[in-house]
Amino acid sequence: MEVLAQRIVAEGLSVRASEEAVVLLNRGDSMNVSRATPRVAPQFIEVADRLGDRLETKVNITVGKKKGKLSVEFANQDDLNRILSLLGVESPAE
User: Fold this and answer.
1) Hey, which of 20-24, 31-35, 52-56 has the most confident mean pLDDT?
2) Contacts of 49 (CB under 8 A, 6+ apart)
3) Rg of the Cα atoms in the chain
């Protein structure tokens, strides 16, 4: 647990990433350091967490040298429609 706590602090893992790491550890999976996510500025992690909380789904922000990417996960068409509605975007006709 101490190693996991040190990793969470060192990598600045979000709450969701920390929870996932705990689940993997409890399942007996090894924590592969080479799969560590690239460092993202804390303000981007905070924005992703807040947006994820608002949309009730996982939101990721990745930042490259010249541009960034925001991704929002959804489970199915109904979930996508729910998220679009929260964002004020009209759902596509089915």
Assistant:
1) 52-56
2) 14, 15, 16, 59
3) 16
